Amino acid sequence: MRITNQREIILEELRRLKSHPTADELYEVVKKRLPRISIATVYRNLERLSEAGMIHKLEYGGRQKRFDGDVTPHCHVVCVKCGRVSDVETVPEVDAEHLVVDSRGYKIFDGVIQFEGLCPKCQLLEEKKIN
Amino acid sequence: MRITNQREIILEELRRLKSHPTADELYEVVKKRLPRISIATVYRNLERLSEAGMIHKLEYGGRQKRFDGDVTPHCHVVCVKCGRVSDVETVPEVDAEHLVVDSRGYKIFDGVIQFEGLCPKCQLLEEKKIN
DNA sequence: ATCCTTTTTGATATTTGTTATCATTAAATA
DNA sequence: TATTTAATGATAACAAATATCAAAAAGGAT
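Output (structure tokens, whole complex):
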């Protein structure tokens, strides 16, 4: 894969952000360094980089996909209210394959544990509603 | 929640199917019993039923959401090629909360283990390509 | 049963996130 | 330097899901 300026900056900014941004959120950030970049270039490169395994595409609930520049194995929590995604520190991980008793003929590659919860901000909002 | 004929049949058919259908797949099935039903009614009721916890909305990769009429706790495999979703039988499950060391201030409700694999059909197609 | 209120429905328009198209530009290779 | 190949920006097209709204259905209250 060719290393273009756009591709490099997209990757750089995604790695810098710890917020698991959506394509348009990342576009806004990248635009500050490359004001003439197109949103299509951001989508295209996120796709290519994720195919190459250099970033991760997160397809948890909500409308939009999110992206993660950190490809070291780790789990995420997704806020059921606002869709925010954060990293979660887990106990040394259990192997996916050993959890499965019957895979229904599927050839299993990987297992991801995804947690669902309420983020700090939404917890506060929830409390205010009650009071 | 009012029990309308449409709502009842949507729920009935979703429970009967074991394929984790998308909204439009379920629409096609329901239409056989209610030929005048609108796709909007299917979307609407799937949303309402899932809010009520009577069904599960599955938001794994792919474009479309899928739905599951079986709300007893179980895990899924998603085929990375075709997006098909199947149930997976796992060893007695590890509690989500005990896996987490640091939840980053999130209040965690649930943990979903999502497996990624290749379904039997796509395995066959893969083999044919090689030969 | 009849009136009134609330909810749901069907049809369809709108929105939204993403992907496709295509002429132009940039980079790599001969 | 010429030629091939890939990437870009602008924008059209697409598909899934949601919103709108008048009409119909359901559930009381009287």
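The domain at 73-131 of chain A is CATH 3.30.1490.190 (Dna Ligase; domain 1).
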